Amino acid sequence: MIAVEYLDDLGKASSRAGLERALAAGRGPFDRPEWWDLIVRHGGARPLFVLASGGEEAVLLPMASAGGRITGLANWYTFRWRPLASSPRLLAGLARGLRQHGWRVTLQQVPDEDGSASRLAEALRSAGWRVRLEPHDVNHVLAVGGRRYAEYLAGRPGRLRTALKRKSGKVACEVLDRFDEPAWRDYEAIYAASWKPEEGAPAMLEAFARAEGAAGRLRLGIARVDGEAVAAQMWTVEHGTAWIHKLAHREDSRALSPGTVLSAALFERVIDGDGVELIDFGTGDDGYKRDWMEDVRTRWRIDALDPRSPRAWPGLARDLARDLAARLKRR
User: What is the pTM of this model?
Assistant: First the structure.
C-alpha cells in the first residue's frame, strides 16, 4: 500500500517515519528543509511537498506550485534539484496524484548520475503525463580519488600552476570555517565591484552562510593585497563533498589573479584539511572551471504536460510540431 501526501508544510506530514526516512537520503545543502525554508521566506514560493510512503520506503519531492504549474522548490542559488530517495514504485504513485494538483510539471538541474532524472521522467510517463527530458546545464566536478593537494595540483594545466607560482606571494589568503561579520561585508563589497550581475537574494545568501557557519560547514575565503580585500569565495563542506557556491574578485585586481590564488587555498583546505571525496563547482560551463575540474556531468530538465488539461494543449501542439520538424530534418 502506498500513502501519498501533498503538503504546504512538512510539519503537517502524518507519516513522520516516512518523512524521516526520506530526509535521511539527503546529502547536500539543497536536500534540507532549512534550504527550502530559505527559498520560501526570501522568494515567496508556495511550497508543495509530495511525500510517498510504503513499507520501509519513502520518497519526498520538494516542489512549488503556482497557477497549476508545478516546479522544483529551487532558485538561482540551487545547482541540484532531485527527489529524496528514488523508489520507482513510490515515484509512480505520487506522479499519478500530481495530476490533481497541476497541469504542468517543470523540473530543472536534475542529476542523472544517480538515476534521478530517468526514474522521475519514467514515473511521470507511466502516470499519463507527456514528458520531455532534455539536457539543461552542465556540472563540473572533481573526484579527489585519495590524492593530496600537492598531487592534485601537479596535474593542473601548466598556465594555472605558473600563475600560482608567480602571484601567490603577492596575495594573502584566509579561510574561515565560521561566519564572520567583517569578512562577509568584505565579500559583499568585492561582489559589488566584480564582473558578476546583481546578487539575486543577498539576504537569503547571508542567512544561509550564517547557518552553515554555525553548523561548521562554511568555508569562507578572503584574499587580500596589502591588507585590502580583493577576492572572496563561499564554499560549504558536507558528507564528503565540497560545494562551491559563490566566488568574485574586484575587477581592478585582475592582474594579480587573486581569485585563482584564493581558489588554490580553498582546494588545499578541503582536500588536505577536510578530506573531501568530491568537489562540486555548480552549474555553468565557464572556461575557468575546466582548469580545476576533471569531469562534467549533465543536468537535465523534465517538462511534463497533462494531456487531459486544455491548458496543456498549446504546449503539446508545440512539442508535436517540434518533434515532427526534427524527424523531417533527419530525413
Answer: 0.94
